[in-house]
Amino acid sequence: MSRTVLCARLKQELEGMDFQLYPGELGKRIFDNISKQAWGEWQHKQTMLINEKKLNMMDPEHRKLLETEMVNFLFEGKDVHIEGYTPPSE
C-alpha cells in the first residue's frame, strides 16, 4: 500500500516515498511533505549541480550548498539555476 503526501513542491496529493532517504529533521520533513515525483526531479537537478559545480560530497561546504539548493527547490518553489543549461522548451 503506497502512502500519499500533499507534496510541498508540486502542490498536490501524490505518492510519497517508501522510506526516509535523507537523514535528520530535514529528512523527516522531506519524507512527510515531498512526493516521489518531486524527489525524482530533485535527484535530476542534484546530479546536474554536482557535475556543473564539480561538487565533492566529502566536502562539508559542498554538502551544505547542495542542502540549501535542495530546500529551496523542494520547499521554497525555487528552481535550480545551472550555468549553461537551457531547459528543453515546452
Question: Can you characterise this structure?
Answer:
- There is one protein chain.
- This protein has 90 residues and is mostly helical.
- It has a domain at 44-77.
- It has three helices and two strands; from the N terminus they run ββααα.
- Helix 2 (36-53) packs antiparallel against helix 3.
- The termini are far apart.
- The relative contact order is 0.16.
Secondary-structure topology with pairs:
Elements (H helix, E strand, L loop, with lengths): L3 E3 L6 E3 L8 H10 L2 H18 L6 H16 L15
Antiparallel strand pairs: 1-2
Helix pairs in contact: 2-3
Q: What structural keywords apply?
A:
Probable Fe(2+)-trafficking protein, iron, mainly alpha, globular, Fe_traffick_prot_YggX_sf, Fe_traffick_prot_YggX, 90 residues, iron ion binding
SS strand fraction? 5-15%
* Average predicted local confidence, pLDDT: 92
Helix and strand element order: EEHHH
Main sheet: which strands, in order across? Answer: 1-2
Quote the distance from N terminus to C terminus: 34 Å
Percent range of helical residues: 40-55%
Q: Briefly note the structural class of the backbone.
A: mainly alpha
Low-confidence parts lasting 5 or more residues at pLDDT below 50? none
Q: Given the C-alpha coordinates, what overall shape results?
A: globular
Whole-angstrom Rg = 14 Å
How many strand units?
A: 2
Number of helical regions: 3
Largest sheet: 2 strands, antiparallel
Pfam families: Iron_traffic (PF04362)
GO molecular function: iron ion binding
Organism: Vibrio astriarenae
Family: Belongs to the Fe(2+)-trafficking protein family.
